[in-house]
Design goal:
single chain, about 325 residues, Spore Coat Polysaccharide Biosynthesis Protein SpsA, Chain A, 2 domains, 13 helices, 10 strands, about 20% strand
Length: about 325
Amino acid sequence: MHDDQMANGRSQTPPRISIGLPVYNGERYLEAGIRSILSQTFTDFELIISDNASTDRTEQICRTFAAGDPRVRYFRSDRNHGLAWNWNRVFALSSGEFFRWSAHDDLTDPRFLAAAVAVLDCDATVVLCYSREQFIDETGQVLRSNQVALGRAGSIRAQDRFADLVLIDHWCLPIFGLMRASVLRATAGYGSYVASDRVLLAELALHGRFYEIPEVLFMFRLHREQSIQALAFHKRAAWIDPARTGRRTLPHWRFYGEYYRCLRRAPLTRNVRMICRGHLMRWWGVNWNWARMMCDLVIAAAPRAMEPLLKYEQRIYRKQRILSPRTGL
């Protein structure tokens, strides 16, 4: 594998914050996303861009920014290794005390890093700080605000935090918050399976509290090129890990099992671990999870016959989660 890097005289002193931006063919929104990061009022950070063998103008855009700002470090792979590999790679290349993932198509308010660092510096029990967010469309127009609250994610009790992360049907947007790198290293990282961001958030919550900044400082963009738009849930495995192309998967069973694995890894007392396992037993009865598990089995047994079901699943997903008659998303 060939890697290409531009560092432009990067300082030998590690920055306080590392921002990882994994990207593949992101030319349409990439420039705006990078500019929103470089315009942060808190400036002691590095931006690590890992290009997963893009075939569009992504490389040119990244090299231009790397040539103009020493905080930008650009790496390019000679082939596409999948989303999970790229997400883990930007973290492996980081050196900051705090770490944040950033998607190429999202926008960050210039005040976000300063506000998040202040929280993490002030309270050592907080392992992840994120803000309220808005959904924007392809042109940057606001669609709506995220109204799903993780009220107990800030609890001092690990079992309460874990309950919210696994029992509430939430968008996984806190994954784009600022987190302690030392805590992230103690987890399994971003898994090579569908919905691994959901499991990673649950595992982080077992290590410490989440804090939500009560202000909109993050804009999550919804557009047709996103995997959540273009691919049914059961078809995302190969996008996350190309080695799974053509294989039958049980995505809901997989990430349910990963919940149990993260409980074994986390530094919990026996009593807290048992309570968390009880929450996982409750998981079957919420958000139609039992039906999703059964659907996994049927699709694995007869994938071709279930193609209409996959299309229906995607239509329902869009209708329930993405309300934008103006854009049709």
